[in-house]
Amino acid sequence: MFAKRMESLKVSAIREILKITVNPEIISFAGGLPAPELFPIEEMKRVAMAVLNDSGSEALQYSMTEGFLPLRKQIADRMKDKLNIDLTYENIQIISGSQQGLDLSGKLFIDEGDVILCESPTYLAAISAFKAYGPKFIEVPTDDDGMIISELEKIITKTSKVKLIYVIPDFQNPTGRTWSLKRRQQFMELINRYEIPVIEDNPYGELRFEGERLPALKSLDSKGLVIFFSTFSKIFCPGLRVGWIAADKKFLEKYTLIKQGTDLHTSSISQQEISKFIELYDLDANIEKIKSVYKQRRDIMIETMKKEFPPEVNYTYPQGGLFLWVELPSHIKAEALLLTCLEHKVAFVPGDSFFPNGGVENTLRLNYSNMPEERIVEGIKRLAKVIKEYNRIKA
Ligand code: PMP
User: Which atom of ligand 1 is nearest to the CA of 234?
Assistant: First the structure.
């Protein structure tokens, strides 16, 4: 009955298990949800009223596929200001969350059997979005400085049909790592040499708590090969489902064409509300608030991990974003650990699903944006207790 592509899309057992984390008794580090108490609800009530008063009939009407023009201009201005990326609104396509951009990219670039290169590990839902188009994933090894460029070059030179490279250089999901400046420069040198399109997925770049801001790959892109994705989900509100693609026109025109057949356009009213919020309020002040809360939550999580985790456990120290990554002693299987943790009412995502080709069982991802500080402390204590039990069994 179903298309062949559905054979590769399996319901994930872990995802099913994690559904129980909606139970408020469970301290969940599993999702990637922003802190809901930071949503500007009162302001958005006024914004919604203003949009309906000022332009209600357009906000409730069909609109153009490229997106709401004032919002495209606001995004282009912000990108210039924040990221030193000099583009105009004509290089911006609004999408229904950057997740839609991933699906559109699969549709646009991938024939069955084509190769996508990505970081190992990489964003779980990018894997699912691309998988529907039947690619072969080749995972490029990474370390604390990002993708290892010598490994990337080896892979490129011995692989035919590399169609696309997908990367998250800033506060990566799932590891929280950020690529160093040197890696960014080396990466772009290589890309320019081999001329392979790159998706730079950047939902977290503006959520830097400390350290120096590093240039986006797009800002180093002299040949127009980088297709930059970002979103209002993590710097504002994910429920509005508004993100954007910033790219050279040769790519953007194709994205527009393909989006037209997918959903005609992103919600007119959501786009207008975001645009109005930026006009009436201070989006940067909102981002500052988010950063200060997440920084405190990261600090308390790491502080508790330092005290409670056995020394054999390693973890990343993200300078921004929502996640950190834990590497357990190799004999501990994160999926088994999760089942025991759920009995103790604490949850995380086992790392295996972030590797498109699987096979890494002793890692896990923790989210620190969504739980208040006292629950982070309690949750990490519970997790540490279970890790210690598992560690003792081996000893
Ligand atoms: N890319 C990455 C790396 C993400 O972490 C997420 C959200 N978790 C997305 C894309 C999708 O974001 P949205 O569709 O809400 O813009």
Answer: 15
Q: Which of 283, 263, 229 is nearest to 99 (CA)?
A: 229
Residues of the chain where predicted confidence (pLDDT) is lower than 50: none
CB 203 near ligand 1, within 6 Å:
yes
> Is the minimum distance from the CB of 32 to ligand 1 under 6 angstroms?
yes
26's CB contacts (< 8 A; 6+ apart) are: 20, 342, 345, 346, 347
Tokens read off for 85: 């990326």
Ligand 1 contacts CB of residue 176 (under 6 A): no
Q: What is the pTM of this model?
A: 0.97
205 lines ligand 1 (CB under 6 A): no
Mean residue pLDDT across the chain:
96
| Domains annotated on the chain, with CATH | 4-40+285-394 (3.90.1150.10), 43-280 (3.40.640.10)
Long-range contacts for 137-143 (Cβ within 8 Å, ≥24 apart)?
Answer: 137/356, 137/357, 138/162, 139/355, 139/356, 139/357, 142/175, 142/177
Nearest-atom number in ligand 1 for the CA of 233 is 15
Distance CA(192)–CA(190), nearest Å, equals 5
Please name the residue ranges forming H helices in 65-148. Answer: 69-83, 98-109, 124-131
Tell me what pLDDT residue 20 has: 82
What are the structure tokens assigned to 165, written together?
């490279």
Q: Is 155 exposed, middle or buried (0-12, 13-18, 19+ CB in 10 A)?
A: middle
Residue 250 in tokens: 């040769």
CA of 99 to the centre of ligand 1 (A): 6
Q: Which two tokens stand for residue 78?
A: 């912000």
Any ligand 1 atom below 6 A from CB of 103: no
Answer yes or no: is the C-beta of 356 below 6 A from any ligand 1 atom.
Answer: no
Can you give the pLDDT at residue 15?
79
The preferred substitution site among 98, 130, 259 for testing ligand 1, maximizing ligand atoms within 8 Å of CB, is 98
